[in-house]
Amino acid sequence: MIDTSTPLGRFWAGFRENPVAVAALTMVAAIVLVAVAAPLIAPQDPYDLGGLSLLDARRPPGHVGSGGYVHLLGTDAQGRDLLSAILYGLRISVQIGLLAGGVALAIGASLGVTAAYAGGIVETLVMRIVDLQLSFPAILLALVLVALLGQGKAQLVTALVAAQYAYFARTAYGAATAERRKDYIEAATATPLSRARVVFRHLLPNCMPPLIVVATVQIANSIALEATLSFLGLGLPVTEPSLGMLISNGFVYMMSGRYWISVYPGVALIVLIVAINLVGDQVRDQLNPRLHR
Amino acid sequence: MNAPLLEVEGLRTHFFTRAGVVKAVDGVSFALAPGEILGLVGESGSGKSVTGFSLLGLIDPPGRIVDGSVRLEGEELVGMPTRALRRLRGRRIAMVFQDPMMTLNPVLSIGTQMSLAIRAHDAVSDKAARERSAAVLARVGIPDARARLDAFPHEFSGGMRQRVAIAIAMAHSPAVIVADEPTTALDVSIQAQILFEMRELARESGTALVWISHDLATVSSLAERILVMYAGRIVEEGATATVLRDPRHPYTRGLLDSLPATAEPGRPLNQIPGTTPSLLALPPGCPFAPRCAHASGSCREDPPRRAAAGRAYRCHHPLERVA
Amino acid sequence: MAGYVIQRCLQAVVVMFVMSVIVFVGVYAIGNPMEVLIPLDAPQDVRELIIARFGLDRPLWEQYLVFIGNVAQGDFGRSFVYATPVLDLILSRLPATLELTLAAVFGATFIGVPLGIWAGYRPDAVSSKTIMGLSILGFSVPTFWVGLILILTFAVSLGWLPAGGRGPTVTVFGIEWSFLTPEGLSHLLLPAVNLSLFKLAMMIRLARAGTREVLLTDTIKFARAAGLSEGTIVMRHVLKLIAVPIVTVFGLELGSTLAFAVVTETIFSWPGLGKLIIDSITSLDRPVMVAYLILVALLFVTINLVIDLTYAALDPRISRGAAS
Question: What Cα–Cα distance (Å) separates residue A266 from each residue in A37, A262, B138, B221, C100?
């Protein structure tokens, strides 16, 4: 039995009513688990270029490779076991998604809440920049930054954060301006607490529900964005193939019927993104008070 | 008494929410004569507005009319196909809502909204619809009506907006207008004006009014007969003067005593103790019993409707006539 | 209204100035263009000559002033790579992208808005749930993946449509268009569908959310009480009430797609702006990048301006409120 006396308990009780959302959440949990455990469960280390044999390249699913084991999902152009490459690729996707989403959340939410609380010139300046950036497509910014910063995981995350923090800032600002007018913030301001403490201990936690919704969506967006950049050849280095790059590499062979090199990584990527978005959709519906009658 | 224009019998409208079934209207019966002004009084949450919406079949899910009958000019409205019901709405039975800020569409001009209402029932040209709109607007007291057809709702004051809403309701000279607290959201000075005008309009066109209000004072100045509603039921009904002078139900008495006009200056107003009960899990028996000074063991059973000499009430312990 | 227009236009000019500084400094402060421009074995005097010719020896602020002065005369400089005026390069690629964008955004709006209104009007119907399920898919699946599947299905397996290129074009008003011939239309179809799916999903969700909220308002209840037919209520009341966010997104999407159809253009080898910017990024062709980014900024500032002014026209409360 679920304890519906706490907000979390009530939330979970509502969440359980949607079987699609529960299935999606289970799927997300399973993928994260598999991604974390990739080095333990993958049949092959896809980063170990010495272990690859070109004799095994572009083999269909079920091929028994020179390593002696069955390539369940076939192999790619370098002779990598696709299943292993996909597991490692998911690991990268989850890593990048959480990292970029988390940092963007921290930076964006702090900026938004501070702007709302500080008011005046800070508010105008921060929100003008944020609004301006929001009118720009995120992928354009990410692309230019990646091009300027160069390739690598840190650069990629930086670009993704720069492209996405504005969504969090806007959301936090909106929630905080509404929250700020309420009595408890007035009360907290009257006590000898530092301003930072009021902002981060009192204001920020109460802006969390809409931020959580945005965070779910943005994690999915980070993953999709990373895959797109990698597909365009601007993402991670070739030695660490992410899902986007696996798909990109397989594109050429797709025309000649060797579909699996692109299709299986693509399926993995889409299942991950769709599952996160389905969870996000349910969270949004539940946290939107205007739809509750 | 004329043949009834509107007959409501055993009306029950329930809302099927996640928390349970809310019996907002639970067995309401009354009749309305042509041209009559009937007051429907109760606190918020008594089911008076839901009763009003039920008359027009405007109950949105999760609500539903589960039982009873609403007959307008002999036609049964409950269970009538939506299409047929739509042809009656606005033409034979219309409604005016509480807040004119919320009812008019902010992005359509007054003239467009009037024309849409007129052309909903009459196949007339756009030009003819505008002519008629201007005429109706002039009738409800909008100065320079023709010129204001192109104005938008935000360019009107609250009172003027409510006049537009009334004009839309009057556009087809319906037999009945259900007015759901149409003056509550307005300034006090405007309230009396609208009240007076609506009574005059109803008189001129022979339209009957069901005037819903929480304000006994307003209703008593307007209605010929009143119904007092509590927890989804009618607890007392009769001619306005009789009910006000000589209430039988303790709840009606409580409402009367809480009116500022009846209080002695300088003394606090008399309030009814307790609050309106939740309609989610109403215990059997008289719903007012927990707040009633006269309650006894017999109140655990439903009080029967007692009718005599043009009035009726539902109480085990009716108040005696004050000498 | 006039005061409001002037105020918004001034704002737009300030924003453009700030954007041009950010773009210029951002692009020129990072990386060294010499590596691209000058052969490694070039003698020192040739090096200096080239550096002086491109004005790269002067301080950044001076370079910026020269640049802005030239831009004011319509000169964005020459491409390092193509050695042609940047503006010509960009303008030559614009029509292809414009055509693709208009097809995708209009298609998405005219299909997505009715579907979304339906899904919001009957939220519990099976058809509505199907529409919403598909919209989540359209929202989630990356564009490049949809492109691959479209090519695999319609070009490779079925052979119904070409896999890439623009096909023959017809020149009208000095601009080349594909959609005027059946052959050109067949080339346009797949990329346009690819580009529109995300926007389609967005329009559906936007229209649905708006419709659901609007339907709960007293405005709609009052319209029903007046006996308006459901068709009239949806076409006249609901559509007008949800129009503001839809027009906004329409404008922003038109802008972002125009600026950035890079993924679709790459997959379908569509000779538009997206492909140009990808190429200039990989070859560090600074003048093209700067000109492109500034034009994109100009585009967005203009779109925002137009949207704000359209708002004012659509919602009479905004403009007349500001004027009074």
Answer: 20, 6, 67, 74, 25
- Look at C152 and A254 and tell me if their CB atoms are within 8 Å: yes
- Chain C: residue whose CA lies nearest to B97: C222
**Which parts of chain C have pLDDT scores under 70?**
1, 29-40, 54-56, 174, 259-260, 314-324
Q: What angle do CA A281, A282, A283 make, to 5 degrees?
A: 90
The highest-level CATH class for domain B6-92+176-314 is alpha beta
* CA distance to A119, C2, C8, C308, per residue, from C324 (Å): 26, 12, 17, 18
The domain spans of chain A are: 7-292
Closest chain B C-alpha to C269 CA, distance in angstroms: 44
Contact: C289, A254; criterion CB under 8 Å: no
Give tens-digit pLDDT for B166-207: 999 989 989 999 999 888 878 888 888 888 888 888 888 889
Question: Phi/psi of residue B26, each to 5°?
Answer: -135, 75
For the stretch B54-79, pLDDT in tens is: 999 999 888 999 999 999 998 899 98
- How many helices (H) and strands (E) are present in chain B, helices listed first? 10, 12
CATH superfamily placement of domain A7-292: MetI-like (1.10.3720.10)
Tell me, what DSSP letter sits at residue A119? -
Q: Where are the strands (E) in chain C, listed by range?
A: 170-172, 175-177
This prediction has a pTM of 0.78
The reply to whether residue C145 touches residue A144, judged by beta carbons under 8 angstroms, is no
Asked if B243 and B39 touch (Cβ cutoff 8 Å), the reply is no
**Using CA atoms, how far apart are residues B197 and B208, in angstroms rounded to an integer?**
14
Size of interface A-C (CB pairs under 8 A): 93
* Rounded Cα–Cα distance for residues B132 and B121 (Å): 13
CB contact under 8 A, C317 and B154: yes
Determine the Cα–Cα distance for residues A259 and A264; give it in Å rounded to an integer: 8
In chain B, CATH 3.40.50.300 sits at: 6-92+176-314
d(CA A262, CA A246): 6
User: Considering only CB atoms, which chain B residues are within 8 Å of C321?
Assistant: 154
